[in-house]
Specification:
It is a single chain. The protein is of the alpha/beta class. The protein has a single domain, classed as Rossmann fold (3-Layer(aba) Sandwich), CATH 3.40.50. It contains six helices and nine strands; from the N terminus they run ααβαβαββαβββαββ. The strands form two sheets. The chain has a seven-stranded mixed β-sheet with strand order 3-2-1-4-5-9-8, with helices on both faces. A two-stranded antiparallel sheet has the order 6-7. α4 links the parallel β2 and β3. α1 packs parallel to α4. The protein is globular and about 45 Å long.
C-alpha cells in the first residue's frame, strides 16, 4: 500500500481539481448518492454513534455523510489526501490510518463507509479489512462499500493522476466481496451493480454498492 499512498500523495491537488472535494454528479449519479443516503439513514435508525469513512481521500463521502446527520470522521493512508481533506472540510476530523488496523475499540463503531477504498487491494489481501470490520463494528452496525467490479482483474495504470508512478487497481468480483462479508458475520442488506456509467462520468467499468449489517459478535 505504500506505492498507492505515494501516488495519492503526489496527486492530491490534481485529484481535487479533477474530482472535487464533495460528492457530486461529476463522479456519482443520483442513484449512487442514494446508497450513501440510505446508509446514513440505517445508522441513524439503529441509534447512531461513531462512524468512520475508511479510505476517505479528500473527504468527499465524509462530508456528504456528515451533512446527512452522522457523527463521522475520515481515515486515509495518504497524507497528501488528508491535507486536502482538512483544507476542504475544516469542521471535520481526519486521521492517518488503514482499514487493516482500525483505530477503534472492539464493537465501538455504529458504522463504516468504504467508498472505493478497497480497489487498490487484492481480494486475498483484504482479509485484514474484513477482520477489522468484524472487530470494530458493533452488532447491529452497518457497513457500506462501493468499488469497481469485475472478475478480480488486476489493472495497472501508468503515469496515474499525472504522476510518473503506476497505480494498481483490482476489479473485485461482487459475489466474492459479499461472501467475505457474510463469512465475517455480516448480513447483506442491499447489493446493486451499475453496468454502464453515463458518458459524463470518469468511471469506465461496472460499479458495485453493498450495504451490510453486523449480525454477530
Amino acid at each position: 500500500m505504500n506505492e498507492t499512498a505515494e501516488v495519492y500523495n503526489q496527486s492530491s491537488e490534481f485529484y481535487l481539481e479533477q474530482i472535487g472535494s464533495t460528492i457530486s454528479e461529476l463522479a456519482e449519479t443520483p442513484e449512487d448518492q442514494a446508497h450513501l443516503t440510505a446508509f446514513a439513514s440505517a445508522v441513524l435508525e439503529s441509534g447512531g454513534g461513531r462512524v468512520l469513512d475508511l479510505g476517505c481521500g479528500v473527504g468527499r463521502a465524509t462530508s456528504f455523510l456528515h451533512d446527512a446527520g452522522l457523527d463521522i470522521s475520515g481515515v486515509d493512508i495518504s497524507t497528501g489526501m488528508l491535507e486536502g481533506a482538512r483544507a476542504s472540510h475544516p469542521h471535520l476530523q481526519f486521521a492517518e490510518g488503514s482499514f487493516a488496523d482500525i483505530a477503534a475499540d472492539d464493537h465501538e463503531l455504529a458504522g463504516a463507509c468504504l467508498w472505493y477504498c478497497i480497489i487498490h487491494t487484492s481480494l486475498p489481501d483484504l482479509a485484514g479489512c474484513w477482520a477489522e470490520l468484524k472487530r470494530t463494528v458493533r452488532p447491529g452496525g452497518h457497513v457500506l462499500l462501493a468499488f469497481q467490479s469485475g472478475n478480480n482483474e488486476r489493472v495497472e495504470v501508468p503515469n496515474a493522476h499525472q504522476t510518473s508512478a503506476t497505480l494498481v487497481s483490482y476489479r473485485h468480483n461482487a459475489y466474492d466481496v459479499a461472501e467475505a462479508l457474510r463469512s465475517h458475520g455480516f448480513a447483506i442488506t442491499s447489493q446493486a451493480t451499475r453496468q454502464l456509467p453515463p458518458p459524463h462520468q470518469r468511471q469506465t467499468t461496472a460499479l458495485t454498492f453493498i450495504t451490510a449489517v453486523h449480525k454477530t459478535i
